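Milestone M4 deliverable, item 7.
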Amino acid sequence: MRVIIITIGDEILMGQILDTNSQYIAKRLTNIGVEVIEMLTIPDKRDEIYETVGYAMEQSDLVLVTGGLGPTKDDVTKKVLADFFGTRLVFNEQAMAWLEELLRNRNLPMNEGNRSQAYLPENCQLLRNFKGTASGMWFEKGGKSLISMPGVTFEMEHLMDTYVIPELKAKYPNLQLEYRMLKVYDVPESQLAAHLEKWEANLKEGFKLAYLPSPGMVRLRITAKGEAVKDLDNMYESLKAELQRMRYTEGDATLEMLVGRLLREKGMTVATAESCTGGEIAHLLTSVPGSSNYFKGAIVAYTNEVKINVLGVNPTDIKQKGVVSKPVVLQMAEGVKRVMCTDYAVATSGIAGPTGGSPEKPVGTVWIGVTTPHGSFAHKYVFSFTRERNIAKAASKALELLFMEII
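Output delivered:
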């Protein structure tokens, strides 16, 4: 099954918000064996919507649309869809009852904007939205389907999980598309591709290898379609054999998830002391549900005063070695471990940029320290990216060091 995703919204085209809806929809569809062939973002304009929907219906078997279903005049999606599918907007008693119940439960009054949400295309299947006032709409035409959902992310996710995915699985039980994921650390994408060039050239029909680089690692995704699915595990093992001299982890779990899983299994705890990363490592660790079981806290020691007075860093070491140095970052790690009473701790001190570098310590220089129940160590890295990427790279590397030490 071939799918095109259409996102409607001027705010996306203007760069004011990110299109996370398409990402979520594509991931959920891929998990059930549906192939997304194209993602399109268009403005809230009648002609653009009509033409794009027509193109998508010709090129795919299923079209998913998000956005343009609000109560204001610039939300024209349902009017355009009614025209495209040769129907009209009519007052829907069922949708009105849903709206009244939703507003009553939230102690909100009914107004004309809300009431307009009950006018819907006559020939579509309605998808009840328990999270908002805009109903989802499912159209059929010429053996193809179009599903329209609100652009509000949590409303779209609710409709995808409650209606769309279960209905597609029931309607198309023989969908076949599966993938396996590996994450390779500290190998540039170009070098990894060169290493796997011969192996990739011998891939059988139905298989595809994708490279997904991010700071500190490259994710490798091997996908199988149709009959190739039965041989996916064998190809996956073959790929791992090609990477036996490299450091990698299996699955789609992030480093922060892997660190958390290990700490939870071992009943151990961690804390962070961060200077150049400004709390990014703590943010990643706490983004995992249940992280309070193993993450005790963080100290963002951005100034020397905090490093000295809170973490116990020796001011003489700062004066003689500099704040971006091995002894300082080791004392930061040991200090936060002591203050937080944890089993592990990780610390960073560096020059994220764009200014502050020197010939001896250029922008991107970062020391990362890790302390464990068995001792402490620190490594120096020189990242040559923008400030944001230097921070991301340092945080990723810190989690990698922590993960390898715990495992």
